[in-house]
Design a protein that fits this description.
The structure holds two protein chains of two kinds. Chain A is of the alpha+beta class. Chain A contains nine helices and 19 strands. The chains are: A alpha+beta, B alpha/beta.
């Protein structure tokens, strides 16, 4: 005997059915078991509702990723981890949808795969994107494993992106080949952070809200749980809730060994003052520690140069920050490594498409040339400002993600 | 798929006989038991009748039973109440490392207040050695708090022996009988208990009501101060509805205890036997004989713990494991860690706790589903590349 629950629907009386067209956004078939990563926010709540509506057997899961005890910065004096309120919202939504809901403990995996990597990249003079690491190592890493254990064929999230059948596939053997596509809502598109996904992962993934605009998503959420619908979008790095970037890096490096590229080491004072030089090597001032700066940064340099200057290079070996003019930031090419091509095989020769070098920036025309060992060369049609090592470069052909890599130089 | 509830150590449904006696007290017989008028007299009579019933079940006098909001409050009252009342005589407390968190966290609180707490270890079956209690006693010891039966593994402690040791040294003895009351004989005289915690919802009574036995002459400092209710030990308007339900639940449990013991242990033993025979490499946690009748705790090494619980729930089998942390994620049970299990094995452990509505068919249903789930999880986790 199970407790009786009310069943909420995602559609109003007047709403039309969603277009479940696999060439637009492939969703799991009715009856498929799907684990939905629910954060308690608007997008993942609606994702769960849509799949339930589509007749899937939905299991809601919230990933417990970090604790304030470990990452500090508990300015709101919240209890325990992530936030209790968000989880309670997820529980309410799961209850209304009448789906089972669990919290899984991925603190270890998140710390190893995301936080440690985040710190290590900064210490090595790069500017990481932790969401990319979290997607590939946690969401489509351990969460997929967990789904397999539960007998679920799919994992779904609230990302604004799509998985679709590749309509360019020519061979019969490629008929079920999948591509990652941008979300329909161009302003919300999150495909950038998903470039590391493999064919195998795409095959087991669904992004239901990728075919909606944010406004549509909120409308559905309104019917499902008004409290959730009213939530603001989160742009911050989730484990630095107080935006205390410097505080976090200082505390973490003081208390934990850091991978410096030569293994895990307890390093003394990785964030210490050093020289700020111009492009001729002339010392202009002192910085507070190179991991606190990023390429293209203008504010917070504390220089009276008489003209705007920008960080154009970070030299971790000598703890030096190089500043220059706006023009010094422009580059017409970059080298990326760790390159992933969604179509499984790297293309034989150069590819004409677009490249996007940071999350909040449009893709720009470029020619991408695959090289050996997962390296690719990207040449922009127009020079790009502040190409930042550690960030991802993602290759597009219009709506379709071709692949991506990590910017090295 | 039919769902099966095997988590009676967590909570039980209210029996209809209990519900029936409670119902009038919500609306018609709503008086405040402390009021002088007829309404109050009616409520007071019902509360005192319940008190006498509860007293009867544990071989106490009615005046030694005080109603509380449940097991947690009773444990807090026993431990902090004794500590504050007797701190002039010493500041040392003895307990075990497998107690309920209400006891452990009350002790941890007192440690921060300057008290000293000895946490005795248990053997591989979860039993405390009374000799160790004796050795741990000092001139400054004011309280020994050791549970009657463990909620997670069901192991029953030699409380009678421990009570005798404490009494010889003039030290107060508290036992948490929340899990054992109604399932095993609970006799404060035989146990030598000065303080004993009880709860309603583990024995088909309502949630939010419990009781504490305080031996006449034993002084405790109240934790809630107010309008002199419950002889000043526990202020607050009596929860008449709950108290009446608690009384009835205890009465029924006492009447049916022996037949229920056979019913519960029969199902438990059948499940234990089938699991041992049909699933390889399992380990049963707890004492083989000195154990609560309906409790079975089993480790399934090689099967991922979180997934095991989730899979069983999805398969319609409600069981429990470890304890949920604030996030709702599962943490390894402190009890299983105390038995010497490693954290991974502890996480991959399941507690089945039977109740009066279960039947042998439920055992068969579990065995239709459990072996396949364990085999699947073992297979999948063996295939995963660690890290």
């Amino acid at each position: 005997m199970m407790p009786a629950t009310t069943h909420a629907t995602v559609r109003g009386e007047d709403a039309t059915a969603f277009a479940f067209d696999p060439s637009v956004n492939r969703l799991p078939p009715a009856g498929a078991k799907v684990v939905v990563a629910m954060s308690g926010g608007v997008d993942s709540s609606v994702a769960a509702a849509m799949l339930k509506e589509a007749g899937c057997e939905v299991i809601g899961v919230t990933m417990h990723l970090w604790d304030y005890d470990r990452v500090g910065g508990n300015a709101q004096f919240e209890h325990g981890c992530c936030t209790v309120e968000d989880r309670n919202d997820a529980r309410v939504v799961a209850g209304r949808l009448d789906i089972p809901y669990y919290v899984v403990d991925f603190r270890e995996e998140f710390e190893r795969g995301v936080i440690s990597n985040f710190v290590s990249e900064y210490v090595q003079g790069r500017t990481p994107n932790p969401c990319v690491a979290c997607n590939s190592r946690v969401k489509f890493g351990v969460l997929l494993d967990r789904a397999r254990e539960l007998g679920a064929d799919y994992v779904a999230t609230g990302h604004y992106a799509r998985v679709a059948l590749d309509d360019t596939a020519s061979d019969a053997g490629q008929a079920d080949r999948l591509v990652l596509k941008r979300g329909i809502d161009g302003n919300k598109d999150q495909s950038y952070a998903l470039w590391e996904m493999t064919q195998e992962e795409l095959a087991r993934t669904a992004f239901p809200v990728g075919m909606l605009t944010k406004a549509q998503t909120r409308e559905i959420a309104e019917r499902l749980a008004p409290r959730v619908a009213a939530k603001k979008d989160s742009y911050e790095i989730c484990f630095i809730q107080d935006r205390g970037h410097e505080r976090f890096l200082r505390e973490w490096t003081a208390n934990n060994p850091v991978n410096t590229g030569e293994g895990l080491l307890a390093i003394e004072d990785p964030i210490r003052p050093g020289p700020i030089v111009d492009t001729n090597g002339q010392i202009l001032g002192e910085h507070r520690g190179h991991p606190l700066y990023t390429i293209g940064q203008r504010k917070g340099l504390g220089l009276a140069a008489g003209r705007p200057v920008y960080v154009v290079d970070i030299l971790p070996e000598t703890n030096t920050i190089v500043v220059g003019d706006d023009e010094d930031l422009l580059s017409d090419r970059l080298i990326a490594d760790g390159v992933n091509w969604h179509s499984a095989d790297a293309p034989a020769g150069e590819v004409r498409g677009q490249a996007k070098i940071r999350y909040r920036q449009e893709a720009t025309p470029a020619v991408i040339t695959p090289c050996e060992h997962g390296v690719a060369r990207v040449e922009f049609e127009y020079p790009q400002r502040a190409v930042t090592p550690g960030q991802s470069v993602v290759f597009y052909d219009g709506e379709t993600v071709l692949g991506g890599g990590i910017i090295r130089e | 798929m039919a769902s099966i509830y095997l988590d009676h150590n967590a909570t039980t449904p209210v029996r209809s006989e209990v519900f029936d006696v409670m119902e009038p007290f919500f609306k018609d017989r709503f008086g405040n038991a402390s009021s002088i008028h007829r309404y109050g007299q009616d409520a007071r009579a019902a509360v005192e009748e319940a008190r006498a019933r509860v007293a009867g079940l544990v071989n106490a006098r009615p005046g030694e039973i005080y109603f509380t909001s449940g097991g947690t409050e009773s444990d807090n009252l026993a431990i902090k109440g004794t500590a504050y009342a007797r701190k002039a005589f010493g500041r040392h407390i003895i307990t075990t490392n497998i107690e309920h968190s209400a006891v452990l966290n009350s002790c941890a609180f007192l440690e921060r207040e300057g008290f000293e707490v000895t946490y005795l270890p248990v053997d591989e079956f979860g039993r405390v050695d009374p000799g160790q209690v004796e050795d741990a006693l000092t001139d400054r010891t004011i309280l020994v708090s050791i549970m009657h039966a463990n909620n997670e593994i069901g192991t029953v402690q030699p409380v009678g022996e421990i009570g005798r040791i404490a009494r010889l040294r003039g030290v107060c003895f508290h036992t948490d009988a929340v899990q054992s009351a109604g399932k095993l004989p609970v006799d404060v005289e035989a146990m030598g208990a000065d303080l004993l915690s009880l709860s309603g919802h583990k024995i088909y009574g309502p949630k939010g009501v419990g009781a504490i036995y305080i031996r006449k002459g034993v002084e405790i400092e109240p934790t809630a101060h107010g309008g002199h209710h419950e002889n000043d030990v526990r202020s607050g308007t009596e929860n008449t509805v709950g108290i009446v339900g608690l009384g009835k639940a205890f009465e029924l449990a006492a009447e049916e205890r022996e037949s229920e013991y056979r019913h519960l242990s029969g199902m438990r033993d059948a499940l234990e036997t089938r699991i041992r025979v049909e699933i390889e490499g399992v380990r049963v946690n707890g004492h083989p004989e000195r154990r609560l009748p309906g409790t079975l705790n089993v480790s399934f090494p090689g099967a991922e713990g979180e997934s095991l619980i989730m899979s069983l729930d999805i398969a319609g089998i409600a069981v429990s494991t470890g304890s949920a942390c604030t996030s709702g994620a599962i943490e390894p049970s402190h009890v299983l860690l105390a038995l010497g299990r490693d954290p991974r094995t502890a996480l991959g452990s399941v507690r089945f706790s039977f109740g009066r509505d279960n039947s042998m068919e439920d055992v068969d249903c579990v065995m239709d589903r459990l072996p396949g789930i364990v085999a699947h999880l073992r297979e999948v986790s063996a295939a995963q590349v660690p890290g």
